[in-house]
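Data availability (excerpt). The following record was deposited with the supplementary files.
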Amino acid sequence: MKLLSIAQIRHYWHYFKMDTPLFLLIMVLSGFGLVVLYSASACSMQTIYKQVFHFVLAIGAMLIIAQIPPYQLRRFSPYLMLFGIFLLILVLIFGSSSGGAQRWLNLGFIRFQPSEIMKVIVPIAIASILSEKTLPPKPLPVFLSIVAIISIVILIAKQPDLGTSLLIGASGFYVLFFSGIRVQILKNNWLNFALISSIITSGAYVAWNYLLMGYQKKRILTLIDPSSDPLGSGYHILQSKIAIGSGGLVGKGLEQGSQSQLNFLPEHATDFIFAVIAEELGFMGVIFLFTLYGLIIYRLLVISFQSEDNFSKLLGASLTLIFFTYIFVNVGMVSGLLPVVGVPLPLISYGGSSLITLMSSFGIIMAIRKHKTPRYLQN
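Predicted structure:
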């Protein structure tokens, strides 16, 4: 069997539109995640095999999406948004339930969560709306974008999945932020500040008294004082803090963490896997993790801001900020700085659907890097 030459390998690599620095960083972080997951799952090879299978599917999705020119995503964005809304409505009507939530569609051969694909569809659709003309956008596109974002957030919150709905809402508002919209409602800056503060305060009051469910209120109260219910709602946070604090500088070593290995730490292979890293690899392991995340975010931003058109810039930058948000929220909730909302640690936590969604967003950004935008579509 004849081996491929280096020149042929480079040709095929370029053909698949892969950005080498970004791909290598993703692979290094994913390999690190598998090592941590092996320890967190009590050396379960079955868990590792399943996660490797998830990675294979996710990389396949990334390769496929990297072949799609961004202007084609822009062209089909209205249909993608309508398709996503249709799936969310189907979930509310026919969705399968688990743990008191109706978030999944069961097609027999596959069971998936439509809200996951909205993490990619919403930024694509909002970036398309706002990049039709020159930036900053006019009031009408901004209004349409806000209506679309709020509609999606309400549909997902009804499942109920408040955490995902807020994160997807944030993904849409990130596009608004990068588009350069102004929030100058009144001429005086102090009056603007007072008005916005009043709106936020009123919104918080309405949400607490009329929108949030009992368990959601309990999560917020637990964040303020987890010791008030140490064996109930505060158990997750307290055990996580113990694990993080006991890791020290270099940690206890893989498979040596008392909180995770003795099952004191709940969900230690999924949502709370950051606590495993801190306990078993210590501060140095956390710094290594954050360094890899920082390098990936830097590369994503470089690709986004070097793109040729407004749509690609808005989409790439917003997807990058979404990636950062998931890191921030997961680390914040595991550390007791944010309420527990069930957000996995990107490329580390066990799971398939969120991993495929994340790799798909990387594929979009690689497409931005490798595909040239037709001149008539450049803003």
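Summary of structural features: The longest strand covers residues 101-106.
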